[in-house]
Design a protein that fits this description.
214 residues; 5-stranded parallel beta sheet
Length: 214
């Protein structure tokens, strides 16, 4: 029977470099002989990707989701993602690197969207259960720098990226608050560093917390 893999999540606001870091970490861990499954939220499975499209590009007639409805959509996607990809990968011994997970719901829908935290924690216990991350890397970047990166992107902003500055300020603060409240699980990384230096810092955290230097 394969030894359970490790579950690593990457968190942070828009434009902090999570996707770039996930790609770099996958390459470095695979180079060490570690089997890696890289994925994202919302998404990762066909069903979750379909829900992702509903969340980030709502139908015209919807005109945006209410925060609690958005929360439920995220957890519908997360449940499918866990059942069909994350849990099987971990059981097979793969290390899972996930771009966003439950902390994003806590930051965006609870802290910024004002859904009561107790509601989200109840839903999280039902949907996630004990499949919690072994390590969460929180990428911290000043909002002005993050917005510059987003402006440089060629693609249009989605329904969440296009929200007002005060919303993203609340999200930024919430991620740091989550990290402070969960020091046994979370490590804050300086996302203003060059991509290679950021990957070095992330690997150092993995080595220290998970023994990834095997």
């Amino acid at each position: 029977m394969a030894k359970r893999g490790r579950f690593i999540t990457l968190e942070g606001g828009e434009g902090v470099g999570k996707s770039t870091l996930a790609t770099a970490l996958e390459a470095r861990l695979v180079g060490r002989g570690i089997k890696v499954t890289r994925t994202r939220e919302p998404g990762g499975t066909p069903g979750a990707e379909a829900i992702r499209r509903l969340i980030l590009s709502p139908p015209v007639e919807v005109a945006g989701w209410e925060p609690i409805a958005e929360t439920l959509l995220f957890y519908a996607a997360r449940t499918d993602h866990l059942d069909k990809l994350i849990r099987p990968a971990l059981a097979a011994g793969s290390w899972v690197i996930c771009d966003r997970f439950s902390d994003s719901t806590r930051a965006y829908q609870a802290a910024a969207g004002h859904v009561p935290s107790e509601h989200i924690e109840t839903i999280d216990r039902i949907c996630v259960g004990d499949t919690t991350p072994d390590l969460t890397l929180v990428l911290d970047l000043p909002l002005d720098a993050a917005r510059e990166r987003m402006t440089a992107r060629a693609n249009d902003k989605d329904a969440i990226e296009s929200r007002v500055l005060s919303y993203h300020e609340a999200v930024h603060k919430a991620f740091l608050d989550i990290a402070r409240a969960n020091p046994q699980r979370c490590v804050v990384l300086d996302a203003s560093a060059a991509p290679a230096a950021l990957a070095d810092s992330a690997i150092a955290a993995i080595n220290e917390r998970l023994g990834g230097d095997r």
